[in-house]
Amino acid sequence: MTTVYLNGEFMPIEDAKVPVMDRGFLFGDGIYEVIPVYSRQPFRLREHLRRMQANLDAIRLPNPHDETQWTILIGKIIAATMFEDQSVYVQITRGVDSRRSHAFPKQPKPTVFLMTEHLTVPSQQQRAQGITAISAIDNRWLRCDIKSISLLANVLLRQLAVDTGSIETVLFRDGILTEGAASNIFAIKDGVLLAPKKSHLMLPGITYDVILELAATHGLARQLRDVSETEVRNVDELWMTSSTKEVLPIVSLDGRPVGGGKPGPAYTAMYGWYQVFKQAVMRNE
Ligand code: PDD
Question: pTM for this structure?
Answer without folding.
Answer: 0.97
